[in-house]
């Protein structure tokens, strides 16, 4: 038992006598120091009901009841300290009205990553602001596009929560119960000031500091505070984890941090070129979500904030996405370029230039956000998993897979970057040559494909297509660099791959197939349309789009493939893949079916979360989101699809 005796009285004063008496009897975690203080929160909220906050170092998910159910510190890929998303006993931090779990309204402060929650109780109204703080080093200056913004990468990062009573009176409750190392180690709390407004919670080599102007007590492994706020009164609490643990010391200071955070996001967004269109809000939210998944110190992006949110309810399709996939990042760069947000793309190019290649010059398909290579997957059998979906995985064995699309992803990004910045950094040329030569060598080999199937390698059409992109982009880059021999050599290979796909990758009905030895469909072949493998007027492009729209959809939403036709080495049925559904919007636009594209886009926007966020998949029969959340793939494809439609509509207007 880790209770600080000195603080037990304070706890009892707040929670009422007997607060500490609720014991851990029968709880297997008691042996490791757990002291259960209240019934386990249950059930798991729907994935899409979470709010996402980020400081571009790490991110958090806030449940509708005001609890932070996911936070890893100090980085996206660190072990969680609040992990209730994966196990109701793996840590949480709630601020909200006592005894009420359903907010009246939740929204972001427009154009920011600051969450505003309003609560109405029988006695009054309160407004809670939540932010993972971030801010400009030199004040909220306007960011000029194409210049390095005055971001303070090394600023202290806090989770700041403020509450303001708008009407009547409300009893506000704070419960902070970290569980370090993905729920394995409960916090040991000690007060560090005499007034008991600052406490340190430690475990598994990590210390967090909680500071508040509310009276706090230690109850076993958690801090609890309660205060009655009357109209016009305020309170705050701040959680920090930086070494110096310096935190705002008053409500006003906390609000200043939130103000800086607001300015940061708005200034960043001011650099984006977002069409004045009815989808503007969705585009802005997606841009903020994608940016929020960027790890600022290296420019790497995580594929999603979380690990192991299930793609099949209660199933085994649970993966850790807190890493940087070359493919996902390349698509992210494209999406940010659509919005004129080139600066992040520049940063990612630096990341690419810095990574350590394999001995043969190839790149891994994914890396840690700090560029590390070993992402060995482990299962955490001590965690229940979201809704009972097990195993929970930490790490991702896909890192050692052979996925031949990676060459195209990297080289397409380099060409895009070169064109946008009108220069090609010298340090990128060795990467171009090694990727192009590797692609030229391996494109004939089977691989695991872009869906990272864990079954046998196949000749995936989309992998060959991306090798064609690799050779095409390399040839254009060689031209820019003035290497005519390389230009010709790589263009010849591009042509060879093109011919090969047309010879083996097209079914007798003129539709692109998933891989050379099947007639099954695969939504990744929509990339052929998006990358202009053939002109959009070519029948094979239209046939592929129509076949996918008709035979690979559930209620209009696109599956990446049918799991009963494709052995991906896993059990369970998936939901529709949101990236594929947005790809279909883009592809319909390309082949001139703009009205149908708009209809599908509108439906996709309707199934976004109440806060405009998307997981990886959507389950048509329940209307629930599935998989990791929020997922960059879904948001970047939304940006691409909307941008393409907006462009098509504008062109139609001037025609
Ligand atoms: O379905 C099996 C695979 O699922 C994950 O991969 C998916 O997510 C990646 C990150 O967004 C994406 O790049 C890939 O295209 C998706 O299929 C998982 O990470 C893999 O380990 C797993 O084998």
UniProtKB/TrEMBL annotation:
Transmembrane segments: none annotated. Residues 280-642 form the GH15-like domain. InterPro entries: 6-hairpin_glycosidase_sf (IPR008928), 6hp_glycosidase-like_sf (IPR012341), GH15-like (IPR011613), Trehalase-like_N (IPR045582). Residues 45-122 form the Trehalase-like N-terminal domain. It comes from the Bacteria. This is Trehalase. It comes from Asanoa siamensis. The lineage of its organism: Bacteria, Bacillati, Actinomycetota, Actinomycetes, Micromonosporales.
């Amino acid at each position: 038992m880790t209770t600080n005796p000195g603080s037990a009285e304070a706890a009892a004063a707040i929670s009422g006598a007997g607060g500490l008496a609720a014991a851990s009897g029968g709880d297997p975690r008691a042996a490791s120091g757990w002291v259960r203080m209240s019934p386990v929160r249950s059930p798991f909220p729907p994935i899409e009901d979470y709010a996402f906050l980020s400081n571009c170092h790490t991110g958090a998910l806030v449940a509708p009841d005001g609890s932070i159910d996911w936070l890893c510190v100090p980085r996206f890929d660190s072990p969680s300290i609040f992990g209730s998303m994966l196990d109701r006993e793996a840590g949480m931090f709630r601020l909200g009205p006592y005894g009420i779990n359903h907010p009246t309204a939740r929204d972001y402060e427009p154009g920011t990553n600051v969450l505003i929650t309003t609560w109405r109780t029988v006695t009054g109204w309160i407004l809670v602001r939540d932010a993972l703080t971030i801010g400009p080093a030199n004040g909220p200056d306007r960011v000029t596009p194409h210049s390095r913004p005055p971001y303070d990468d090394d600023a202290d990062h806090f989770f700041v929560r403020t509450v303001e009573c708008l009407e009547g009176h409300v009893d506000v409750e704070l419960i902070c119960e970290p569980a370090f190392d993905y729920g394995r180690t409960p916090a040991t709390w000690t007060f560090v000031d005499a007034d008991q407004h600052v406490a340190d919670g430690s475990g598994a080599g990590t210390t967090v500091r909680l500071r508040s102007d509310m009276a706090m007590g230690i109850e076993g492994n958690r801090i609890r505070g309660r205060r009655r706020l009357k109209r016009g009164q305020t309170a705050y609490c701040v959680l920090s984890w930086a070494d110096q643990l310096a935190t705002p010391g008053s409500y006003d200071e906390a609000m200043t941090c939130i103000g800086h955070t607001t300015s940061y996001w708005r200034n960043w967004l001011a650099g984006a070129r977002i069409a004045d269109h009815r989808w503007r809000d969705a585009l802005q939210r997606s841009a903020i979500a994608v940016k929020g998944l960027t790890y600022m110190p290296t420019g790497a992006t995580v594929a999603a904030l979380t690990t192991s949110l299930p793609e099949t309810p209660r199933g085994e399709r649970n993966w850790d996405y807190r890493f940087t996939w070359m493919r996902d990042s390349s698509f992210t760069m494209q999406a940010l370029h659509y919005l004129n947000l080139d600066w992040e793309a520049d940063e990612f190019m630096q990341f690419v230039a810095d990574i350590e290649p394999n001995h043969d010059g190839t790149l891994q398909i994914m890396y840690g956000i700090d560029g590390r290579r070993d992402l060995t997957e482990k299962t955490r059998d001590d965690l229940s998993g979201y809704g009972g979906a097990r195993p929970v995985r930490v790490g991702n064995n896909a890192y050692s897979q052979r996925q031949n699309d990676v060459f195209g992803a990297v080289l397409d990004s380099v060409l895009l970057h070169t064109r946008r910045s009108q220069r090609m950094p010298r340090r990128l040329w060795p990467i171009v040559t090694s990727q192009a030569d590797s692609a030229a060598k391996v494109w004939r080999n089977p691989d695991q494909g872009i869906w990272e199937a864990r079954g046998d390698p196949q000749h995936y059409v989309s992998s060959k297509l991306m090798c064609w992109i690799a050779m095409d982009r390399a040839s254009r880059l060689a031209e820019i660099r003035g290497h005519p021999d390389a230009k010709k050599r790589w263009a010849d290979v591009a042509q060879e791959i093109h011919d090969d796909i047309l010879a083996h990758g097209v079914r007798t009905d003129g539709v692109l197939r998933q891989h050379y030895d099947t007639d099954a469909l695969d939504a990744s072949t929509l990339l052929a349309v998006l990358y202009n493998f053939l002109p959009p007027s070519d029948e094979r492009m239209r046939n592929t789009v129509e076949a996918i729209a008709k035979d690979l959809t559930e209620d209009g939403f696109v599956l990446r493939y049918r799991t009963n036709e494709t052995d991906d080495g896993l059990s369970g049925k998936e939901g529709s893949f949101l990236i594929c559904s947005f790809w279909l919007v883009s592809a319909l636009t390309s082949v001139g079916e703009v009205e149908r594209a708009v209809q599908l886009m509108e439906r996709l926007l309707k199934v976004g979360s109440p806060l405009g966020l998307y997981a990886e998949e959507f389950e048509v029969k329940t209307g629930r989101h599935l998989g990791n959340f929020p997922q960059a793939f879904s948001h970047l494809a939304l940006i691409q699809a909307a941008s393409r439609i907006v462009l098509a509509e504008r062109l139609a207007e001037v025609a």
